[in-house]
Amino acid sequence: MGSKGGRGVTMRRRKAFKRAAILAYWAPWLVVTNRADSVMDVFDCGGWCFACGMRYPRLQHAHIKALCEGGADDPSNIHVLCRACHSASEHRSGDAYFDWIATWTLVDSLKLRAILDGYTGAMP
Questions:
Q1: Residue 26's closest CA among 69, 81, 68?
Q2: How far is the C-alpha of 67 from the C-alpha of 82, rounded, in Å?
Q3: pTM of the prediction?
């Protein structure tokens, strides 16, 4: 069943995955890439961004490979990101996404967050 989108277009309803399923799938990767100390830490911490590591009350599910490029709509293709990191990852897909996340830092995320929030001053 679809739902009515704007302009009378019927849109396909996407599945919403539970955060626990995404964390369970990605926990070993988070440990191997030093984003978490242990698999148990992944579940204990819960609300933090996979890219920058900051804790935020509202996180977004981001597709690693875009659905329009044939990416799966399941936990193996979804990361949990903050608004700034999700924005920075939007035009990256597949290997380009993983190249980006390997070099993205907390400082990069904080600078982008400031810009998204309207800061216009000089940044180091």
A1: 81
A2: 20
A3: 0.78
* Residue 68: C-alpha distances to residues 20, 30, 41 (Å): 25, 26, 33
Domains of the chain and any CATH numbers: 15-116 (1.10.30)
DSSP 50: T
Q: Which two tokens stand for residue 107?
A: 């400082």
Structure tokens at 45: 């911490």
Q: What are the φ and ψ backbone dihedral angles of 55, each rounded to 5 degrees? A: -90, 130
Q: How far apart are CA 91 and CA 97, in angstroms?
A: 8
Question: What is the mean pLDDT, run by run of 10 residues, along the chain of 124 residues?
Answer: 49 64 91 88 80 88 92 93 94 94 92 87 67
Identity of the residue numbered 40: M
pLDDT of residue 3: 47
Q: H/E element holding 11?
A: strand 10-12
Cα torsion at 92, 94, 99, 103 (round to 10°)?
Answer: 60
